Automatic annotation (TrEMBL):
Assembly description: Homodimer.
Family under the similarity heading: Belongs to the SMC family.
Domain of life: Bacteria
Secretion signal span: none
Protein name: Chromosome partition protein Smc
Binding site for ATP: P32, N33, G34, S35, G36, K37, S38, N39
Function: Required for chromosome condensation and partitioning.
Subcellular compartments: Cytoplasm
Domain notes for this protein: Contains large globular domains required for ATP hydrolysis at each terminus and a third globular domain forming a flexible hinge near the middle of the molecule. These domains are separated by coiled-coil structures.
Native species: Rothia amarae
Amino acid sequence: MHIKSLTLRGFKSFASATECSFSPAINVIVGPNGSGKSNIVDALAWVMGQQGAKSLRGEKMQDVVFAGTSTHAALGRAKVTLTLDNSEGLLGIPSEEVTIERTMFRSGGSEYALNGQAVRLSDIQDLLADAGVAQEDHALVRQGRVDEILTANAEQRRDILEEAFGIHRFRQRASKSERKLES
Ligand code: ATP
Ligand code: MG
């Protein structure tokens, strides 16, 4: 499975429709500071269902909608379309190509679509998690995260490794049960 394309419309600094095409190999996005490279990565996290405004480097969720510049008026909605190659069938739906789309209006609230059909956020989350692509994992390593790992102490580093190995959840569940037994 690989990303075929990502199209941004009214998302952050991308006022007009901008399509980024990706190859199955390594892809590199280059550009001057402030040109929108991280906004493209934000769009990828956002279309996959990211819920935290802070994780998207904003104050509130609506901050992803193009806010306007001296030459362009602000827009009323942001829309991102992700097209994935599913020729290996890793995503549990029988189509060679899968599109996931998220729309948000300035008034708030998100709409999701899977291959053009309206779906719930949980449908997108389940689809991706079943294919091993989960938000909380390490599919996206953000700016600053590498420093965080390098400067972590032993305990923090163990936390990072446990999360990567997928045992973090089980430890959380175990301590929840322990607390229940104690009370
Ligand atoms: P660097 O190389 O410094 O990491 P970058 O290419 O990653 O830069 P981004 O952080 O993606 O740059 O883009 C920042 C730009 O996006 C800023 O100029 C900011 O004003 C603009 N921007 C962010 N959100 C919005 C929005 N909602 N509407 C319009 N512009 C926005
Ligand atoms: Mg950046």
